[in-house]
Amino acid sequence: MRTTTLGTKGPQVGVLGLGCMGMSFAYDMAAPRDDDTAIAVLRQALDLGMTLIDTADVYGPFANEELVGRALAGGHRERAVLATKVGLVVTDPTGGPDNSPLFGNNGRPEHIRTSIDASLRRLGTDHVDLYQLHRVDPQVPVEETFGAMAEAVAAGKARHLGLSEATVDEIRRAQSVHPVASVQSEFSLWTRDVQAEVLPYCQDQGIALLPWSPLGQGILTGRFASFDELPEDDFRRRLPRFQQDVLRDNLAIVAQVRTLAERLGATPAQVALAWLMAQGPQVIPIPGTKTPKYLTDNAGAGDLELSATDLAELDALPTPHGGRF
Ligand SMILES: NC(=O)c1ccc[n+]([C@@H]2O[C@H](COP(=O)([O-])OP(=O)(O)OC[C@H]3O[C@@H](n4cnc5c(N)ncnc54)[C@H](OP(=O)(O)O)[C@@H]3O)[C@@H](O)[C@H]2O)c1
After folding, report:
1. What predicted TM-score, i.e. pTM, was given to this entire model?
2. Whose CA is nearest to atom 17 of ligand 1?
């Protein structure tokens, strides 16, 4: 796998990373968890050079970090560039639609100070390579939150800092406290909002952009042909773009990705990831999977070069019906 730098001063990472959220959270929650396979997938990602491993304390909550910690035990930690997040908390475990959890922000410095130690304990490590603010808390100046995260760097508990879903103004304010190595934003063939401001700003500043849900929560792989194919107790069943009334139209976009993929002898997932990587040398997608064959498929995107004509065809795809949330 080719490598790139995580921000101007960050470590080398594979041009594709691995998102671990879906190994124990949000998707397919009615199915029994298969931790052994998830652990094997994470180690396989490291073998393939997908070294940036992304988790968060709120995934589970906490279970995902524990799982990642188990996967990295036994000498694998040193092979990974380990990223976790702080600042999103469950406010009500069953208060949302279909008894889903409700989330809130907590960017208070005291929360950050205790959370980093708890994350390190669960991850079985003395430091994370990238500590990211999951959401800016509107009740707490981002300078204060980031200041507490900078204390974690000073204490050797985190090497680099990042933000997630932040505006350019919030990124700038965080930079006034401590260098920002990366920003995570939803970014894929059907969510392109960051192209307006955040991506150009990150490129100008040498900040890595980590697209989350780079496969459009899986839809861009061509794997789902109807709403009924979504697993039971799955977060996507509540997302506007997956609803029955718009899904048929939205799947027409996926069909166009598939047509191009077939022409290139690639898969739709590879095309979706290659398009993202073509947006800049420090655009590092973190596709999520717990399935060995999907991981191999995604890794193949590292070798797929899209021509200017292919990119123009993908740029011209329509936007999907329905908002992100
Ligand atoms: N910063 C944030 O606020 C935020 C928010 C959401 C996610 N994230 C991060 O971003 C990562 C990725 O996002 P995501 O998991 O939401 O969405 P995604 O990567 O766009 O899609 C994941 C889904 O696609 C499926 N999949 C993956 N590769 C496939 C392939 N080659 N063929 C067929 N299906 C495939 C997965 O299946 P299986 O799981 O069944 O293998 C899973 O259902 C997360 O793991 C997390 O680390 C961050």
Report:
1. 0.97
2. 213
